[in-house]
Fold these 2 entries.
Entry 1:
Amino acid sequence: MKRSIVIAIDGTSASGKSTNAKLVAKAFDFVYADTGAMYRTLAWHCLQKKVDVHDPKAVAALCRRWKTSLECVGGSIRLLVDGYFPEREIRTAETSAAVPHVAAVPQVRDWMKKKQRECVRFGNLVMEGRDIGSNVFPDTEFKFYLDASLDERSRRRAAEGVQENLAARDQRDSQRATAPLMIPLGAIVINNSRMTAAETSGTIIEEIKKRLPETR
Ligand code: DC
């Protein structure tokens, strides 16, 4: 069987990962996977079940018991809670505050890594996150790392109506012991502070085409 191609897009918060990953997936007709949404779904599940997200053992136990499934709808992969995808709920301030704690639990990261690797069964993938090129698919030759200045990223979040301390979030994501946010070995780094999404995704698409001759 032909191996699925995986495009890994990692980077800081509000660096444009989702927008660009979706544009790249569309350009190649690949499936899109937002791994941040997967961690958010588990965080929401913890909140629903009244599991203290500051208690790693309790979070790991809930994750172990979680009878979830992966589904691919309209070209996007997601995890379900009792057959339901909490699309809006995972974006609330409450879930956003809970998710870094859940994402720092080593057993959760191992569990997520397995689930994220399973996503290749849906076909060629564009997967965005913090540790995709460094930890989930370290062997892929398609690795990108997006960043932008803190000012620009804060401005983007504010334009979405979200006030968030991005510096604190990046620090937590970069300093956790297990699979921290980092520039993966071999990744192409794009600072898009002064770039539009069309320019950023265009740069990524060109780089992919250079290595995927059959798509040219
Ligand atoms: O990208 P996002 O804001 O939806 O991510 C939510 C949280 O999950 C954020 O704190 C970083 C974390 N995360 C992670 O640790 N590893 C990933 N692969 C994706 C997200």
Note: The domain at 1-30+123-211 is CATH 3.40.50.300 (Rossmann fold).
Entry 2:
Amino acid sequence: MNLLVFLTLFFFGLAIEAQTSPAPTVAEAEEFMNKAEARLADLNVKVNQATWVHDNFITEDTEALAADANDENTAATTELVEGAKRFESLKMPPELERKFKLLKLSLTAPAPKDPKLRRELTQIAASLESDYGKGKYCRKPDDCLDITAIERMMGASRDPNELKDLWIGWHKVGAPMRQRYARFVELSNQGAREIGFKDTGAMWRSNYDMPPDAFSADLERLWQQVRPLYLSLHAYVRSKLAKKYGPQLVPTDGPIPAHLLGNPWAQEWENIYPLLGLPEKSSVDVTALLKTKNLDPKGMVKYGENFFISLGFAPLPQTFWERSLFVKPRDRDVVCHASAWDIDNKDDLRIKTCLQIRDVDFVTVHHELGHNIYQRAYKNQAFLFESGANDGFHEAIGDAIALAITPDYLHRVGLLENVPEGDNDIPQLLKQALDRVAFLPFGLLIDQWRWKVFSGEVTPANYNQSWWNLRLKYQGVAPPVTRSEADFDPGAKYHVAGNVPYMRYFLAHILEFQFYRALCQASGYSGPLHKCTFFGSKEAGAKFNKMLEMGQSKPWPDALEVLTGERQIDGGALLEYFAPLRKWLDEQNKGQKVGW
Ligand code: X8Z
Ligand code: ZN
């Protein structure tokens, strides 16, 4: 057959094909989507059940079951995304169009269509999470510390050698993950490309109702807005640590050694408050209050629930109390990193935590319950809208409530006898800044690193070096000992091992102040922002719920507007909250170098 005849027949064939599959209609698209949502909702319950069991009882078998469930869900989603391509050029009503977009973005780990490769990816993902959950530092064969113990010890110890030893010990859990992580990146990128994204990082950045580059620009705007406050805090903390540990260990013009900040990742610094030289008893010691009241972990959660009830939310279901994990079990490996669950996308809410009786865990309790309250508020939305307006919203709900744990609140619920008198709010604000402001650059850098890894700008040959470059650039911290490419320090952080995107926490740490300020206003409060509690305000609760029940049904600026009247994420509320502290820090830092 000559070429001309062949081409004629070929195009004739195509024309017939086009005639036999006419352009799809909106009704067909709707039908496709309804079926897709029903199928995914079912699979989602299976994934939740298998993952819950795995995370609460890590064994080879539960790992295989969790990987299986994830594999099935990933396969179905991949197939549906492929099927949805048929409707790509169809003009649809906005709500339906949004569902198609969200379907395409719904996998955190997109996988290749090839079942063998997909399976490899889901198995690697499950094994990395298991490894993190089982992770231990064994000082001697019969003296092994899990992450809960290490967090406790690094929060309490002031011995630099012990801290260094714990830091090095915990970071050993990363190294064995390195090769599997590199393979995971390859496979997931292939999956992202098959769906039409440049790489997995670009896909993650596409989930913010704006072009991915505009999102990156917004992050830079936010960081520049809050960075001066972070630098002031960093300089002040550094000078106090230099006094405590000496300038050889803590140079007054350089980065802070990462093992001295009271936390394995130097991400929140509240635990070193006693080293900062403020008069004792000048701020409320929540840890001491919880201990004096003899609260057990469940009791702490009850306080959290009670706050939400005071705003008008319904109590948590009985099953929450029966099925949640509050304390680390003694006899088995669990993923202790705190999380909130909605197993059936209806009422089966749970948290999984290894609580200690400490102020930072009291904040975590409110954080997790915020997830549960959001999940329940949007449970009547369509499946693909059962999410936060964006993932930063989800992380900010409980944190906004935790900001309202003021001395006044603690007094009202009977945890604190006397509210400290006087108007010296600096100790309280400093404590809060050690938690929320110290976190900001950490929240920003994790995915700066991961996005570079996914894009190929960072390769396995410089995984660790680039990690520490970013730690230095944004946080101004340095590792206590020389690191090399035999290490894989990112793997010692849960969200890298567990493949949970992290930019959400940076956003949340800004959004929570916007939410908090709006809730304060709704409650009728006027006064310095940091003293506000909206405990008991049904008005604040009703306004909150209006935003929460929207889930992800509308672009996030619409949701933000419902609660705050603003359409931009903005650091103004955070800066307002910390304004008195900023002034004070700048006075303390006079004559000192700021930055590193
Ligand atoms: O992972 C969490 C929550 C669960 S979503 C406990 N957080 C981040 C972390 O621990 O690294 C909350 C603050 C940041
Ligand atoms: Zn969370």
Note: Confidence is low (pLDDT under 50) at residues 3-18.
